[in-house]
Amino acid sequence: MHERTRHRFLERGPPVSSTPRGRWGWGFENELIDEDGLRDRKAFLESVLDFPERPVLEPTPIAEATIPEPEIEPPAHLEDVCSMDPAARARRTYGMAPPENVRAFHGDFSPAPDVLARPRTETDVEAVLEWATDRRIAVTPITGGTGVAGGTGPPAGDVRSNYAGTLALDLRELNDVLEVDETSRTALIEGGTMGPDINDQLEAHGLHLRHYPQSYELSGLGGWIATRSGGHYATRYTHIDELVESVRMICPAGTFETQRLPAHGAGPDANRLVCGSEGSLGVITRAWMRVEPRPEYRSEAAVYFDGIFEAAEAIRRIVQAKLYPANCRLHDRVETTMYGLEDVDRDMVVLGFESTNGPTEGAIERALEICEEEGGDCPDGPDHHGEGYGSNRSPDSDVVRWGRAFQMGGAGNAAIPLCVVRGTVETAVTWDRFPAFHEAMLAAFDEVLEAECGMGHVSTRFSHVYPDGPAVYYTFQAPGDADPDRRIEQWQRIKRAGLDTVMEYDLSPTHHHAVGRNHREWYAEQIPENYGESLRAVKGVLDPAGVMNPGVLVDVPEKG
Fold first, then answer.
1. How far is Cα 257 from Cα 465, in angstroms, rounded to an integer?
2. What are the alphabetically sorted keywords of the record (predicted)?
3. Which of 36, 142, 364, 372 is the most buried (most CB within 10 A)?
4. Backbone dihedral region of 551: left (phi > 0), alpha (psi from -120 to 50 degrees) or beta?
5. 472-510 pLDDT, tens digit each
6. 3-class SS of residue 473
7. CB neighbours of 537 closer than 8 A, spacing ≥ 6?
8. How big is the CA angle at 247 (ends 245 and 248), to the nearest 5 degrees?
9. What is the largest CA-CA distance in the chain?
10. Which domains does the chain have, with CATH numbers?
11. Spatial distance between the Cα atoms of 468 and 429, rounded to a whole number of angstroms
12. Residues 215, 194: contact at Cβ < 8 Å?
């Protein structure tokens, strides 16, 4: 048996958390977008997507931004872990929801937290929460701050008025893998550890936390657990929940910690109370996570279909055959065009299989047989990687080109200076309802895009798939108004049209983007009324003063 290994002081390079994230867009500060990229995107929008000529705006410098003076200041015993620096507070004002990007681009940081706390230990976290509870200060826990549902920043408006002040609790100093149990293949990881830092530290043990959300480089474990993050695995371990063995959460009322167990049948699972809590109950400071070796064998292929429903039927059969592809994503022809692969002009399914034990040809060959039976075409054939294989994949293949385009933040970042209204609506639906639901969504988007913007495009992908249905992800893109307030209003109305249609089909307003504040209205419609009351009761026990991330999941208690 292997012994558990401790390595808190493992030598490594500077953590990802030391690199400043972009203030108004996706990526690090020095890579948001360059002049060539912006020019290329403008030309693409106008020539390929038929947008009217787009203006090119400049971001407001931070020195000219609106950042209010703090209304509170930390006590002397917390000065070492707290900052009131305007630029630092501005960086922790927003997540990555499109309206937040627009406001940040135009220098509006009016909801900026009064105080930014950077705890170094769990004792620091406890001290900050004690002060916040005593003074009724709203606390927003943050790791990467990449959430797109409006739950990452401090409360504003009527909710803000219930509190003496606001505080952003930046967890990125809690960034170590504390212990590795190689026998059980689990690791104890601090909540502020960013994705690349987790796997850099696990690499010494030949293990990885195989969870890769699109925000992987910019987000961390605590945020993943708090938002029930979805990774890039299309089947099986689609959400972070499946990888959580136990978790510790520091709450205003004390510490909430679950046991290390492979599984149990003793009542409702306490881990599940923490997963998806969105900072509304406490601060996730560490968790035992299930880890595994890197896969040694991979197979991948791109399959083309003449229609989305034929592609969907092939995917349904693949997932119900329990082939468990790591990647099984459908991208309609609008989506491939929006990402610069306009020459594809068919609906594309990207398949990928991986294994630590042996070759994966058999699984992908069976999946390709199913695709062919449903009218799919795989002209390049599958590509295999692993011992004894050489890759036959061209760097210009559609799989490789799509991977490059999909990982780039350029399309989303360029939307801001080019005044493009861009956003997403994602949910999950059973296979039997997908065709009617899909047609209803496209009709709703077409109507609202024409009404709000005069034109626009909406694309479809399956981000994850299950035996009983797909997770469907719609992206809309339209020419927006140059006025930022009007552009945000356009986004809100388009988003509302999509979410209202989702609820007409009795679905969820989110599959993996969390609830936040942007989806609260529809989340309240989704859940049973007495479930919402139960959540409020739990919050009343763990956070009696109601200071933890007010405005997400449940109503905020009035000041009393």
1. 32
2. FAD, Flavoprotein
3. 142
4. left
5. 999 999 999 999 999 999 999 999 999 999 999 999 999
6. strand
7. none
8. 160
9. 70
10. 174-290 (3.30.465.10), 297-386 (3.30.70.3450)
11. 8
12. no
Mapping DSSP onto H, E and C, the string for 92-139 reads: CCCCCCHHHHHHHHCCECCCCCCEEECCCCHHHHHHHHHHHHHHCEEE
Cβ proximity of 301 and 381 under 8 Å: yes
Q: What phi-psi label fits residue 236: left (phi over 0), alpha (psi between -120 and 50 degrees) or beta? A: left
Angle at alpha carbon of residue 548, lines to 546 and 549, rounded to 5°: 115
Please list the helix, strand and coil fractions of the chain in percent, rounded to the nearest 5, in that order. Answer: 35, 20, 45
Interacting residues of 329 by C-beta distance below 8 A, sequence separation 6+: 234, 349, 350, 461, 462, 463
Q: By C-alpha distance, which of 210, 220, 230 is closest to 145?
A: 220
Could you give the C-alpha distances from 269 to 243, 258, 429, in angstroms and in order? Answer: 14, 9, 25
Question: H helices of 465-528, where?
Answer: 484-504, 520-526
Q: Alpha helices of 204-267 — where are they, by DSSP H?
A: 221-227
Name the residue among 427, 490, 491 with its Cα closest to residue 461.
427
Model pTM?
Answer: 0.94
pLDDT mean over 530-553? 96
For residue 234, give the nearest of 399, 471, 406 by alpha carbon: 471
Contact 338, 457 (CB under 8 A): yes
Q: Which residue has the tokens 């299950």?
A: 466
Task: For residues 197 and 220, give the distance between their C-alpha atoms in angstroms, rounded to a whole number.
Answer: 9
β-pairing, 165-170 vs 137-142, is parallel
User: In sequence order, what are the beta bridge partners of 470?
Assistant: 465
- pLDDT single digits (tens) 146-202: 999 999 999 888 889 999 999 999 999 999 999 999 999 999 999 999 999 999 999
